[in-house]
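HUMAN: Would you supply a protein with fold tokens?

ASSISTANT:
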Amino acid sequence: MSTWRWNTQEKDVPVVDIERCRACRRCAARTVCRTKAIVQLDPGEPPMIDAGRCFGCLVCAPACPAGAIGPRRG
């Protein structure tokens, strides 16, 4: 008989700090995201993170020159 274990931990989906975001026309964090979870609807607008696509790897955080992307706190 097999025993399945499910990962019940929530993944660490990062957040965008709108006040720190410079709304770069070419979002550096978006270019490094392997799952295409960072969506920028219009150039010059702050990006959003699609929690359904994000793995929580946080590769995007150090790629942001403004330091506007980071782990959810609290």
